[in-house]
Amino acid sequence: MSNSELAVSLAALILADDGVEITSDKLNTIIKAASVDDVESIWTSLFAKALEGKDVKDMLLNVGSGGGAAPAPTGGAGAAATEAPAEAAAEEKKEEGMKSVAYDLQ
Questions:
Q1: Which end of the chain is less packed: N or C, by CB atoms within 10 Å?
Q2: 24 with 45: CB under 8 angstroms?
């Protein structure tokens, strides 16, 4: 990550922590106050547009907490229903393997 990206990221975090809307102008103000001179205005515009209407604190708190896994089946019919597709997939894979062997022999 370049110094420009880092400076804009940290400025966005400061604004989010204060509960202030993240805009390009506010990002530039913080970056200038921190005496970071080599940040192109494209970075502040990109970050402001990317974070527009988003709750940055919520995004940080939910990092890596993607959708939950499906619950495991419990008991009789559910277990049998799960095994049937697995067996069908294994049989199909076996047939594909046999076809590739047949092509190799010709």
A1: C
A2: yes
